[in-house]
Give the backbone structure.
Amino acid sequence: MEPTPLYIDGAFVAPVSGASFEAIDPATEEVFAHVGAGAAADIDAAVRAARRAFDTGGWPATPATERARILRQIAEGIRARADEIALIEVRDNGKPLPEAKWDVGDAAFCFDYYADMAEAFEAKGDTAVDVGDARFDASIRREPLGVVGAITPWNYPLLMAVWKVAPALAAGCSIVLKPSELCSLSCVELARIIDATDLPKGVFNLVTGTGPDAGAPLSEHPMVDKVAFTGSVPTGSKVMTAAARDIRTVSLELGGKSPFIVFADSDIEKAVEWIMFGIFWNQGQVCSATSRVLVERAAYAPLLDRLAEEARKITVGRGTDEGILLGPIVSKGQYDKVMAAIARGTKDGARLVTGGARPQHLNHGYFVEPTVFADVPAGAWIWKEEIFGPVVCVAPFDTEGDAIREANDSRYGLAAAVMSDDLDRCERVAGAMRAGIVWVNCSQPTFAQLPWGGYKASGIGRELGEAGYLAFTETKQITRFDKDETWGWYIKGA
Ligand code: NAD
């Protein structure tokens, strides 16, 4: 099998070292592709290409209508190959095919959305500011930020990359993308799609490779103006440390341990549906996953019964098989971590209500049953730390104040959800949550039009929405003094 190439300066190339690594289908544990293993020399070539494209290639000064036209070409290219890319994503990541199709559709939409935004910002022009002195005419301008290094995770391999690539290109930046070594293939397809558009060479570059060999040199490269990172807290910290050395901008989208507060006046069926959507979608490998559920004591037992009953009905299997709702965990390493977390939960005194093992009918693949823990002690490791698997922790609460305190008692602050028939109470709780995303009477629906990101250790900055576009711009003030006026502080008449 020929390894997939890197994409540097408008050309598909092999890594300088000629090295590659294996892509493993998590449903079968079989190697199905080889991926080019880029390293420091490839990153350097890609960053230099992006630097040239930005500094002298004309992309930042390209009219927004032209940038938007090319972004729409990319959206169209994704749509034209949507089924094929979704199948690649399933093979690489394991997720059920309908979920992969959803991701690919979202990726195409994201390019269209930021194409519109580029045009809207250019049409709006500079923002005039009244500085309170009629001799001055001041305005604020947004300019493309520069060369972006994007480092992305494996849970939504294409979509997490697109959340960075689309707004960065829309804003006039050039970019070097380094996807996760666990799932690189859909990003290689993105490079092929981009190659077929009119995007000037060097504006988009792809270097596949491992974190230490390719991610680290990208985050440390002195010619990179901004590193946009999505991944774990420890790696995010390394990226930020590297950025501090040269005073580089970073955005960090990190982990979470997101609470869902269910009041007893809620419709239990709806609560169970949203909890399941929150923790079993994508095998629970979602940064904002509904991993801690707090249920008002009066509804606790009936909700747990229904949740366990429905969790047991979930069809687990290969993502391409008809009717599958839960695929395998992405890799052996992640599978082992999830299993270790489950063992730890039981040891720490949580009650295993259902799941916790490999499904009996599946001998191969990194499959884990949908797992529900109840009566989870607040100090337990599984209550505090991100498991990144189909494992939900449930605990009771007595008062609204207790629920808010317990929900906020986390080093993370990515998302939170609240469910109640009493909408005033929902608004109160939503306002009290220390989280960047709060869902009311639902959990997880995500829209490109809304800002995405976390408080506390869940990250810095926002992706998506207008914030996600502005994150790839610099802000410039231009202050003009009336040439016919006199300043006259030192020299009268000057
Ligand atoms: P990870 O930190 O292991 O890897 C993320 C990326 O960083 C990969 O591309 C990896 O190769 C690279 N990397 C690893 N070491 C590096 C280094 N020293 N320098 C530079 N880059 C390096 O995370 P993961 O396991 O791929 O993803 C799971 C994590 O991502 C979870 O914690 C999850 O919550 C988080 N996540 C967050 C969001 C969000 O929007 N907040 C979205 C998806 C995933």
In short: The chain has a mean pLDDT of 98. The pocket of nicotinamide-adenine-dinucleotide is lined by residues 151-155, 160, 178-181, 210-212, 215-216, 219, 230-232, 235, 238-239, 253-256, 287, 386, 388, 414, 454, 459 (CB under 6 Å).
